[in-house]
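note to self: dont lose this again. the chain is below, predicted strucutre after it. 235 aa total, dont forget to put it in the shared folder this time
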Amino acid sequence: MAVRVIEVHENVFNTNNLMADQLRADLTEKGVFMLNVMSSPGSGKTTLLTKAINMLKKEYNIGEMDVDIESSLDAQKVSDATGVPCLQIHNGGLCHIDAEMTGKAIMEFEKEHGDLGGCKDNEETKDGFDILFLENIGNLVCPAEFDTGAHKNMMILSVPEGHDKPLKYPLMFSICDLVVLSKMDTKDFFSFDEELARKYILDLNPKAKIISLSAKTGEGMDEFCDWIREQVSAK
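---
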């Protein structure tokens, strides 16, 4: 008997991509820039976002959504440290978040904080949001496979993880617009070759922007915030 083969994965991803495109268009129409932030656990996502939000919140209205399997620790940390509206997303034990989940989370965010629509260039008031950070679940595999509807993808590679991560997780580095090399203040304590890390990343993704920084010391934070400003202006 002949066996019929159905390409289920392709179908699932196509559906997600269509939903992501629609969500991205809706956010653009509202004047909101969304950044999807990915990395492995412990890379410093929450610390980096907290630092950046505090540097940018006088210029922009900012919201933050944090994805985890359980607990609301990270979202609470960002909220306490920055004062900006935050939402914790529990993804039901999955290793990723997709466009449908992101869209539902945004609907809940709007129920609590009002319409996301950011300020327009010709308006004096700043109702709504200009920037929405999506702090994705800590994982270097699954999140790279799902378009969340964000305008840009960013991932963090911390010094303690090693410079060879692009060779082990090529898809993650291939789909990111920005790669942040974080915890640069610890370089003296680890065998991390920054030049080689940059080469591996650019071999996979020649268009990637790479920024080396330390949220602890502030090194590179101005460059990172300037990149965000450029994306907000360009959306």
